[in-house]
């Protein structure tokens, strides 16, 4: 008799626990759903309509601005022209860890712009064509930049990249 009573007591506790879990689950689901609805309701002016409504692009310029990588370090940009057989810029000086962009244009002949010791360079371009290269100046030192076409380097198509 006592044994049976104990079992009934245990069953009641189990039923209460199961009910609690079910009720808790329903409440959690509703809560999550309303959070999701609230999130979606706050989005139309930014993410939700970005793909379908180009007009909205200017409405949310602040989105992602804080995450922009370009703000991490300054971008130092240089325009370099090449001809037979010299560069318009003989020396490029930057600070360590600067992001460097070289916009190279051939004014006459087929040339490129490469940095010895950095293993970076533009494409080889013909007269009137341009090519750009981006790199991070992460190694301090003085490096020779040069044109890798034919014997242009030996003929004087060189300069100095100084990272300090
Ligand atoms: Cu050249």
TrEMBL record:
<dbReference type="Pfam" id="PF13473">
    <property type="entry name" value="Cupredoxin_1"/>
</dbReference>
<dbReference type="InterPro" id="IPR008972">
    <property type="entry name" value="Cupredoxin"/>
</dbReference>
<keyword id="KW-0812">Transmembrane</keyword>
<dbReference type="GO" id="GO:0046872">
    <property type="term" value="F:metal ion binding"/>
</dbReference>
<protein>
    <recommendedName>
        <fullName>EfeO-type cupredoxin-like domain-containing protein</fullName>
    </recommendedName>
</protein>
<dbReference type="InterPro" id="IPR033138">
    <property type="entry name" value="Cu_oxidase_CS"/>
</dbReference>
<keyword id="KW-0472">Membrane</keyword>
<keyword id="KW-0479">Metal-binding</keyword>
<feature type="domain" description="EfeO-type cupredoxin-like">
    <location>
        <begin position="72"/>
        <end position="163"/>
    </location>
</feature>
<feature type="transmembrane region" description="Helical">
    <location>
        <begin position="12"/>
        <end position="29"/>
    </location>
</feature>
<dbReference type="InterPro" id="IPR028096">
    <property type="entry name" value="EfeO_Cupredoxin"/>
</dbReference>
<keyword id="KW-1133">Transmembrane helix</keyword>
């Amino acid at each position: 008799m006592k044994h049976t009573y104990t079992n009934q007591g245990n069953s009641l506790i189990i039923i209460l626990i199961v009910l609690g879990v079910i009720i808790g689950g329903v409440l959690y689901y509703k809560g999550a759903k309303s959070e999701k609805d609230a999130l979606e309701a706050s989005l139309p002016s930014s993410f939700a309509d970005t793909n379908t409504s180009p007009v909205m692009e200017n409405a949310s310029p602040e989105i992602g601005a804080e995450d922009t990588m370009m703000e991490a370090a300054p971008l130092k940009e240089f325009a370099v022209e090449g001809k037979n057989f010299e560069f318009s810029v003989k020396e490029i000086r930057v600070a360590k860890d600067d992001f460097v962009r070289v916009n190279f244009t051939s004014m006459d002949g087929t040339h490129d712009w490469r940095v010895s010791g950095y293993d970076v360079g533009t494409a080889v371009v013909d007269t009137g064509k341009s090519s750009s290269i981006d790199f991070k100046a992460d190694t301090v030192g003085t490096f020779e930049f040069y044109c890798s076409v034919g014997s242009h380097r030996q003929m004087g198509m060189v300069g100095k990249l100084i990272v300090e």
